[in-house]
## 1
Amino acid sequence: MSQLMSIDTFLDSEEVLVDVRTPSEFLKAHIPKALNIPLLTDQERAEVGTLYRHKGKEKAVLKGLDLVGPKMSDIVRSFLEVAPKRTVRLYCWRGGQRSQSVAWLLEQAGFKAKILKDGYKSFRRWVLNHFEREYQFRVLGGYTGVGKSDLLQILENKGAQVLDLEKEAHHRGSAFGGIGLPKQPSTQHYENKLAMRLRAFDMRLPIWLEDESRLVGKCAVPEFLFQQISRAQLFVVCRTIEERIVRLCQLYGVEQKQSLIDACMRIKKRLGLEHTKKAISLIEAGLLDEATLIILKYYDKKYQYSIDKRVVSLYLNGSEMSDVQLAERLLNR
């Protein structure tokens, strides 16, 4: 007999997590760490849905059985591969027909199944509610290239709670930010990932993150969360422009020149036509340090405008200490 579970209990459980929705539903967004073993393909679901709207539930159910029947053994085999202990958590869109059907099938094969009550819709409500909570954010700021992401990693290695907005978005936050990184998730899946990270934190303790604009590439930081970040304590790391250029060249120097040129073209209106042409010419000539200097003038002006509207809790001179010392200074605040 399958067990219907509330969202918190469902997430607290440790059984293999399986999304039985269609591949396209899963690709758009899903509960992080879930596997996808669809009951119906995208085309099959569309066919059943059309029948339901035009011919009624009975016709749709019968068509669904026609489609699923021949592949029931394959579905069970797929579950045996990922859950050899025969215990699983299942969800579909609303916790209805699809997850209940898969649970029944698996029970015939000796599985124990737990089903998320109200399905993925329940999870999404839970996600959005998480962003309305109050968190003790501590924000790392500074010009492009001061090493904020490196500092966050050191803080996390030292046991601090870190919400890496760029890491979860697969993007470093600038026109160059997606170079060399995996494809970005949808904004909805980005929200799912952030909520699951926040869930793991102790809300009584600080959470460190990087100062970001509302958009990290194409991923939007949830509005209420963004407003909290904007009000949080800001710690600004300072380095010389020469140090920043060295760091940025180390980061982007291994990438294809065309990727860097394409990024320049994305900001040509703001960089200016002449500066864009000059930066591209320098990239083509292999003079990335000189190109970086031109590009940083745009980003520095942009960030300074943003920081002028904030109250800075502390400026840290990164030129006078190592990254580890900087992290220790922040933790001892």
## 2
Amino acid sequence: MKKRNLKNSILVLVIFSLLFLAAAGTTAASDLEEITIGYFPNITHAPAIVGVSENIFVEQLNGIKIKTKIFPNGSLFMDALATNQIDLGYVGPGPAINRYLQGADVKALASASTGGTVLVTRKDFEYNSVEDLKNKIIATPALGCTHDLLFRQLIKDNNLNTNRRGGSIDHRAQKPATMVGLFATKQLDAAVVSEPWAARMEADLDSKVVVDWNQMPWNGKLPATLVVSTSEFIKNNPELIENFLKAHQKTVEYINNNPVESSNIIQKQIKEITRQKLSLEIIERSMKRTNITSELDSSVVQKLADLSAELGFIKGDSNLDGFIDISYLNKVTK
């Protein structure tokens, strides 16, 4: 009898302990007082820049304090997400895909922008079609980056290849700032770059955009920037995620409905963050080549991953099943 009572007492204690832990976890999620959003001071991150500046996130998140963390590249962003320095934010598809396939906890919830990447040539380059890139010197910002993969698909679609893979195009990796000097000294014929670099090259060098953002592979539907978080944070804070995406969608609509005001906000915020001032003309031209949208086409993202694997930048399986979760976005936009 005593043994049975002891067992019952232990069972009751275990049940109460589990209920206490469950309640504690629920309280921690619902009582969240502050979140940290990560993003870059880039044109393609316009929803983050405008949403933070205009307090759209603050108003939608019911009093939760918003902290921000600015990043210079996707690798550092993904490090911060993995170590809980940020809770969610905006990053290019390449870094997010690579970390996911390496086993990291990352989920893509929405797009922030598509397009924004173009093929630009030196002003005296006689360009009529992609075939004119044969035996020319072409640059991309880095090997395996999103712009580089768009370039590889562009020439693949036209039965061309780079000298790195037995083709006729002299392909080089150069930082956009370096490309400007190479264009000026005629050491570079063309480049695939994102905005605002193309607009700056047009303004400063009379360079020509010969393949616009919506003429690039996949008709410009490849996300330039994704909204991402971790599955753990999403699971613990579903209401917050939904409200965040409501704010994100409101900001997307605000930018599209107020292009002049948005360009002014972006100009001001980029100057405050980077201490560099872009002219309104550059920003407005860049924004016309950047489609600000929350719509996320998972099939295009998968094609990007498959191409990256084909070219050897991703080792192993490129299957992105489980990477994208647009269920919260669908609730917001239905």
